[in-house]
Design brief:
This protein is 21% helix and 24% strand. Strands 8, 9, 10, 11, 12, 13 and 24 form a 7-stranded mixed sheet that branches. It has a 7-stranded antiparallel sheet with strand order 25-28-29-32-31-30-33. Strands 2-1-7-5-6 form a 5-stranded mixed sheet, covered by helices on one side. 49% of the residues are buried. It starts with 18 loop residues before the first strand and ends with a helix. It has 4 domains: 209 residues, FAD/NAD(P)-binding domain (3-Layer(bba) Sandwich), CATH 3.50.50; 184 residues, FAD/NAD(P)-binding domain (3-Layer(bba) Sandwich), CATH 3.50.50; 143 residues, no CATH class; 84 residues, no CATH class. With 696 residues, it is an alpha/beta fold. Helix 5 runs parallel beside helix 6 and helix 9 runs antiparallel to helix 10. The longest helix has 18 residues.
Length: 696
């Protein structure tokens, strides 16, 4: 096995899987049973999966979610998405270079009737919202078909190794996303009225109120539901910059899929674009996987994600460049460096502020768009339809869990079930969980240097309350009517018994404990730690930092241990001066040396910013047509093939609209491209009912 697999992880268990083999361009390579082709290739150090037919530029993985076709390869003679297709022992895989190796047709295919079924409730999406809705319906004995395109249920929960924010009572706050996925999956399995189709994709919602499902990737089925719930989550937004199609430019979901689901190390030095929760969390996941995070750029003056997520990164040693943007990804066949610049109040790069950083991967996390196409079609066709989770409104996964729970009961009501009124408090809780980060306060550090004092380094209004339930004596208070309030310590300094549950259990790793009892002049500070126990050991000398990532001093580790309820969070203790102790928030994980800019700014020499990834249509081509008078994106599509690629305009349509805005064309003058009836590519044979074994 190669060195590109993650062999140790502070949170994830490394599973033992049977090794199989496949060939890449005729060379035999190892793979693990059940993993995707993309992960197997990355594990073997292969990042280029093919070359674009138009300009022969290299292609690699981008979304790892089946939404685009950047990772297309030829497996056993057929074009497949490497991120979705699992490796089969002995499989022969070739790059997609525009000349697919087609199998010889030996006989005419045979066909059968396309199966049709009726079901009371059809749920599209097995993430937090879809699972929660299905559980509520299962409790009521309502027949449900839950369809998801992945190998297991949980959606993005299966990629989240961190503890969740939100309400401990309502949505498992304080529990890791990977564990919430398992909890929900096990709960759903109790209900015989819920049928689950995995590795199955919704293709279309039709005007006759039927829904086309590609079941198990091999059989086309038409489902007629009484009620449709769309809980398909969200897709990542794309960003136009020079070099944006280079292998090594990932969406955040693709990066987390490789690292946290498949335990493959896709980079050594990562740079992040986007300071929302997705980008901030992905940076922390990278550090846990042993990947250096060179920096993060955010165009706004402040990161849009939770401050505790940002603080967690900076005190690990990751620079956050606010009011900056990416200029280009640089490299020949792979990302080799990134160039950034400061921006003015209009987000225009400021000349002379350019810097370049050496890296081999760039993670794009610039927001999400709801996957709501099926819901919109269902509404158009007068179906009884509901929408939940990110497909309804982009928010945190905790909000999606509660949203799904409410929608499950609303569906039951719509079907005439007598369940009583849904409590108004549920809707208030749902609104709180969806709320954006609120006010930021000056960190309130206690002056009294005696006894034991918990220090709260969270100073922003966000929905979160696990710390209040962790203290065995109820000494930490969060307003239960509005859990966005910051916590307060209501005990005196001699009430705390130093159980350290609040330190280990805080989702933001934002609580430290200062113990003055043994030596008031040199108190002991307990700090949460979620990295390999081999990185820091007792008596090691470490750099301690404050909430904002400022270095306070170097000191020796007094002790490192875990507690019974720690759930893989370690506690590091240091001894320090009493004046400094309340300011300590974390320990530097990576050296500042690796985050320094390159000596010389790298200028990408060609003006080839790609807008349409699938067809490699540049911004220049689009702009030229707009200046000729084109205002209908369908016409632009006809001339350039933009929006005609495999992703179905999921990434480029919004970028084309942006170019229109830059050219001064108002929104009401722009004609959007026609929506495709089929959501994901599928062979015509399957749609016609071709026998699946013969189609292979």
């Amino acid at each position: 096995m190669t060195d590109h697999r993650i062999k140790k992880h502070p949170i994830l268990t490394i599973p033992t899987k049977r090794e199989i083999s496949f060939t890449w361009q005729g060379k035999t390579l190892p793979a693990l049973e059940g993993e995707t082709i993309a992960s197997a290739l990355y594990a073997n150090g292969i990042k280029i999966f093919g070359h674009h037919h138009k300009d022969k530029s290299p292609l690699g993985i981008f979304c790892a979610n089946g939404q685009c076709s950047q990772c297309m390869v030829i497996a056993d003679g057929l074009p497949v998405k490497a991120c979705m297709q699992t490796v089969i022992d002995g499989m022969k895989v070739f790059p997609n270079d525009g000349d697919p190796i087609l199998p010889e047709v030996k006989s005419q295919p045979t066909f059968k009737e396309v199966p049709e079924i009726k079901i009371p409730v059809l749920i599209l999406g097995g993430g937090p919202a879809g699972l929660s809705a299905a559980i509520e319906l299962g409790k009521l004995g309502i027949q449900v078909l839950l369809v998801d395109d992945k190998h297991r249920l949980g959606g993005k929960l299966v990629l989240q190794t961190h503890r969740f924010f939100g309400s401990a009572d309502a949505v498992y706050a304080g529990t890791r996303g990977i564990d919430i996925a398992t909890i929900l999956e096990k709960e759903l399995a109790q209900f015989s009225s819920v049928d689950v189709w995995l590795q199955s994709t919704c293709l279309a919602v039709y005007s006759d109120q039927k829904v086309g499902i590609l079941k198990n990737g091999s059989e086309y089925v038409l489902v007629t539901p009484e009620v449709l719930l769309v809980a398909c989550g969200a897709r990542e937004k794309f960003l136009a910059f020079k070099g944006n199609t280079l292998p090594g430019v990932y969406g955040a979901g693709a990066f987390q899929t490789l690292v946290n689901r498949d335990l493959v190390k896709p980079a050594e030095k990562l740079f992040i674009v986007g300071g929302g929760n997705v980008g901030l969390i992905a940076g922390y996941h990278a550090l846990q996987a042993g990947i250096n995070v060179i920096g993060l750029v955010e165009a706004l003056p402040e990161c849009g994600g939770y401050k505790v997520h940002k603080d967690k990164l900076v005190r690990m040693g990751v620079p956050i460049h606010t009011s900056h943007t990416i200029l280009s990804a640089n490299g020949h066949d792979n990302v080799e460096s990134v160039s950034i610049a400061a921006v003015d109040e209009n987000f225009v790069p400021i000349p002379g502020s350019e810097q370049s950083f050496e890296c081999d991967a760039i993670l794009i996390a610039v927001g999400l768009d709801p996957v709501s196409e099926f819901y919109q079609k269902a509404v158009d066709f007068k179906m009884k339809a509901f929408v939940a989770g990110d497909a309804e409104e982009i928010a945190e996964a905790s909000a999606a869990i509660f949203s799904g729970k409410i929608k499950g009961l609303e569906i039951a009501q719509a079907m005439g079930k007598e369940i009583g009124e849904i409590p108004a408090a549920w809707y208030r809780t749902g609104a709180i969980l969806k709320s954006r980060p609120g006010n930021v306060f000056i960190e309130d550090l206690p002056n009294l240097a005696e006894g034991v004092v918990p220090i709260f380094h969270c100073s922003q209004e966000i929905p979160c309350d696990p710390c209040s339930s962790l203290c065995p004596h109820g000494l930490i208070i969060v307003d239960k009517k509005d859990i966005r309030s910051v916590p307060t310590f209501v005990g005196n300094n001699y009430c705390c018994e130093v159980c350290e549950k609040c330190v280990a259990g805080c989702p933001g790793l934002a609580i430290t404990l200062v113990d003055y009892r043994a030596n008031p002049e040199k108190p002991i500070v307990s700090i949460p730690y979620e990295f390999s126990s081999e990185m820091i050991t007792r008596d090691d000398r470490v750099t301690i930092l404050d909430t904002e990532g400022n270095s306070l001093c170097d000191t020796e580790v007094f002790d490192i241990h875990s507690i019974k309820t720690s759930d893989r969070t370690m506690i590091i203790q240091v001894e320090t001066d009493k004046e400094m102790a309340p300011h300590i928030a974390g320990i530097r994980i990576q050296s500042p040396r690796i985050t320094q800019p390159m000596f010389q700014y790298v200028n990408h020499v060609t003006d080839d910013t790609i807008v349409c990834r699938c067809e490699h249509v540049s911004a220049g081509e689009i702009r030229a047509l707009i200046r000729e008078g084109y205002k209908d994106i369908n016409e632009i599509k006809t001339v350039t093939r933009a929006c005609m690629g495999a992703c179905g305009a999921k990434t480029c349509a919004s970028l084309i609209r942006r170019i229109f805005r830059e050219e001064g064309i108002p929104n009401d003058k722009i004609i959007d491209p026609s929506k495709r009836p089929i959501f994901i590519e599928v062979s015509l044979g399957l749609l016609a009912g071709e026998n699946s074994e013969e189609s292979k």
